[in-house]
Write a structure and sequence with these properties.
The chain is α/β, with parallel strands linked by helices. It folds into 3 domains: 35-55 and 285-400, 4-hydroxy-3-methylbut-2-enyl diphosphate reductase, catalytic domain (Cobalt-precorrin-4 Transmethylase, domain 1, 3-Layer(aba) Sandwich), CATH 3.40.1010.20; 57-146, 3-Layer(aba) Sandwich (Rossmann fold), CATH 3.40.50; 149-279, Cobalt-precorrin-4 Transmethylase, domain 1, CATH 3.40.1010.20. It is 41% helix and 17% strand. It has 15 helices and 17 strands. The strands form 4 sheets. The chain has a 5-stranded parallel beta sheet. It has a 5-stranded mixed beta sheet with strand order 2-3-17-12-13, with helices on both faces. A 4-stranded parallel beta sheet has the order 9-8-10-11. Helix 1 (13-24) crosses helix 3 (56-71), helix 11 (250-268) packs across helix 12 (270-276) and helix 13 runs parallel beside helix 14. The longest helix is centred in the middle third of the chain and has 19 residues, at 250-268. The chain is globular, with a radius of gyration of 23 Å. The N and C termini lie far apart (55 Å). 45% of the residues are buried.
Amino acid sequence: MEQTYFRKGFGLKDAIQGALTDDYHSAVVDELRARGYQLTVDDLTVRLAQEFGFCYGVDRAVEYAYETRTKFPGRRIFLVGEIIHNPHVNQKLAAMGIVIIARSAAGEFDFGAVGAADVVILPAFGVTKEAFDRLRAVGCVLVDTTCGSVLNVWKRVESYARDGFTSLIHGKYYHEETRATASQVAKHPGGTYLVVRNMAEARDVCDYIEGTGLSRDAFLDKYRRQAGPTFDPDLHLQRLGVANQTTMLARESLAIGEEVGLAMERRFGTDHRATHFRTFDTICSATQDRQDAVNALLREPLDVMLVVGGYNSSNTISLAALCAERVTTYHVSDAACLDTERGTIRHVPSGATDEIETAGWLSAPGPLRVGLTAGASTPNNKIGEAVARVLATRGIDPATVG
């Protein structure tokens, strides 16, 4: 019988390495590393954070997708949503003949076109338990690229449900990873969850626990989309386990856990907190490393910070938020946002959702120091292209650097 589930690769890395290098390598990034993550030309200095771009989980997912195309050259291959939140990577996969199944407006995937003879790639974020079960029922080959850090959160959430705790998840309820994580509670009868986006929403939870917040009906109305179908705040805020989407701002996740724990202690006492509350830091190490590297870079004098990565990339958004607290920051989806002739930049300000255009962003007289980082789903070639456009915006020919 044919094996229909794969998680550990096909041993074809040597066969795909050339394609990966062609698609994602950057000589500019190599040059920056060789120069101690700093490039100075005339009156311009570009400083690159020492941790940036593709993390191990993203590397693995992209490699596994390329291996899948090589392993099954004659089979139809589908991808559930985006492999990672980077449009260029997903476009590369589509150009290789991999069919991307988009989510509906309701957030669900239609697997009607998938047959038993097909191959389906599961993205780095994972998929919900319900989607996984549907695909297994089809009988197709599943290639699972779910990141190991995400799987660790799933195990934590599943243990909460098994032990009768509600999972309080710091994340974005609409994000693929958080949806997949929340669905793990369904593995145990009575399992439920509530997703909070930020500290303000966590304080609603704290106030309810302490009996000073919204009414039951008002709380349910506000958080209906973010809670499990059986969630009842009167029942399910008494035993809580905190987890988080792996790409959130680490310090906020830790602060949310502490605030909720203190609220339970104030309402029910220290002994109750010890037995009815659990919290663990489930931010992935790569996310933490990139945030730490940005904080280190921000201790240097910088005039501008450029953050490169998809506008729907949670870890990139977190990096931009950190930077915006300290220095003028521009979050761009890729180098095309930098118009070198007009000297303008298209970007999404921290905390906003719509792209705007800013003129003269690098027009101040020198010397000028530009910091740069990139989200964990941004390939090196896109980082290199952004550096080249920064140089060109200041009238420096990138071809002369090396």
